[in-house]
Amino acid sequence: MNERQIQKFVQRYLDATGCHIVEKSPAHFHVKLSPKADRDLTNRPYYWSFVDRTGAEPETMSLLLVTDKQKYDNQTAAAAANAQQKDSSAGGGAAGAAAAGSGASGTANAAEAALGRSFGYIHGTLNTNIRVPREDLYFGSRRLNQLFESSRQGGSYLCLFQEPDKRSNHPLDSTAYSAWLGVNMKVEFACDMKREEFHSFGVSLATGQCIEQFHDRLLQYRMTPKLPPNVHTAKNAFTLTKAAAIAEQTLERKLRTYDYSWAAAASKRLNEELETINHYYQPLLESAEEENKPQIAEQFERRQEEIKWQYEPRVTASAINCGIFYLQGIG
Length: 331
Hints:
This protein is α/β, with parallel strands linked by helices. Helices cover 48% and strands 23% of the residues. Strands 5, 6, 7, 8, 9, 10 and 11 form a 7-stranded mixed beta sheet that branches.
């Protein structure tokens, strides 16, 4: 994940969570967090429990999110150098004492820039002495992982409506929309090696039809969280539980057609490893003194469990996220 992708993701996250962007550039965001983002990112449970108990107006934190450290530091250093140059030029025709003062001012600006790189950036027009905590965002950083987790939790369940291509001019015209359960699932094939697949299913709550690659279909539409005008929703014939079962059955039938020779090979490696440790521990148990046998047996059992966990072939499926999507027509 490069700097441009991080910048794009952070922009979308801030927009989705309602954060106020005070200032931004291709290398950073200076933001006033929304209550939702503050709860997820700042780890202030006692403060938010106080707000919830008392109903007080929350005061959220501000953050400086740097998405491109090198570019941002270069910008800050250039701004500090320009400020120092202006101060020097302004004091060029003054007396020695004034020149000394100008030099001190330039030194102060340089020090301020250095502190800004360490503690955060404050735009000069904000007229505040409060420093904004700086967070460098890069793939693997703690703060970026927090953003990912907040996005995952907030986007696990959705309810969206397809925006119509064109709206009827007649106020009594109404277009029928039907609800679809969309589920994105991850399938993991694991032994001493691992492989993952992602599947997207859509199940019509009106007809029970199940289609694959549902996420790709949704990308063709413009979606909105509000019900568009001149639209009515059809009655559901299937419950969410039944629709989820249809998606699971479809995935199960698909997995049954796969080649599982890898599982047979993994089982063979498992048996070979179990035989190896068995040849080691059995003579050890037979020759050990009676008081030492329980410890050796416990170690033998623990080692067997470790090998089974590592080599035993298994297939697991889990839902990543899901949502209800209202699409035009009766699907």
